[in-house]
Amino acid sequence: MDVAFLGTGSGYPSPCRSASCMAIRHEGEVWLIDCGEGSQTQIMKTKLIRPGRITKIFITHLHGDHLFGLPGLLCTISMAYKSSNEEAMEVEKEDIDPTDTIVEIYGPCGLRRFLRESLNLSRSILSFKYVVHELVPENKQYNHIKGGDPDWSKWSPDHMATGSLHINECKHGRAIFYDISCEGWFIFKDEKITILAGQLCHRIPAFGYVFFEPPKPGRLESEKLQKAGVPKGPLYGKIKRGESVTLADGTVINPRDYIGPEQPGRKVAILQDTRDSWSTLSICQNCDVMIHEATNENSHYKQCYDNGHSTPAMAAEFATAANASTLVLTHFSQRYKDPHLHEEIDDTDLTVDKLVEEAGEGFLGNVIAAYDGLILPVTRKVR
Ligand SMILES: [Zn+2]
Ligand SMILES: [Zn+2]
Question: Which ligand is located closest to the Cα atom of residue 200?
């Protein structure tokens, strides 16, 4: 599992930082989180993300710096599938069979309509199908944030499901509501991964996404079994499955004594635009990597908070409470330069190092500033 940071800037794309976009690569699949303007160029630049492998796209909220790249990206992927010379996005033939591919897109209410309208009005036909599953926000904790939408009742599936179905859109998109049993919005689960969402406090409905693997069963300690006189063969399989075994001499082999400790699965939380992440605390607990926005430095707290954003201290406090191992800051105001991206930095320039330093004052784990092109491996905790 790794996370590729494709756009780490806030507000708009600049030559050094593209608007928000990330990709998680997991077990041969690629999932995109946010797709700001310019994301497709970033994907082409990395060479590590194969667009034909993108099976799920998660949009945190409908602000343009997280969304405006999506229709364009879908069209370019589509073109690439069709083109014989594959020049558009280097889609590899084995990646995909467009005829039975459905790209699943998740995001707040309104996303379905946005895609419908943009694809219908631009007469865009895709070479694959897509479906939009909409997350229905809870209104309770949101009052008035400057520049926000005062009428939260509009953010409902009924209001948003206007416009005619796009020719490539599957009509079975779900409306996903808060589910108390998982303390969040249940997105997806299979044997390899569970994906949940939690609501963040921003100027419009916004969601954070949490990806976590199930624990890996402990290793069978075969040397120990041999010493105990267990003959190699089918008995090993039984013990590994947790069954007790009685040997010919009457010795009972208890699997608990011969199976190593369970390996915890990896967990990544992605919390973009937010001035308050606390309602997602339980689903973020014990994450290996917490990716949290930190738009401006601590001294800009008031401006940051009023605009629905976080400072490094806010990100650090939340990461500490969630017992995260690594905190990755992102969504930086374009005013912060980065030694990885800018060739010339002088003493008067503000840099992301300041933001990392400020987060480090409140968070004892590892703090990293994301930059466009960073690929962060997520390793399993070893017990
Ligand atoms: Zn943003
Ligand atoms: Zn925003």
Answer: 2
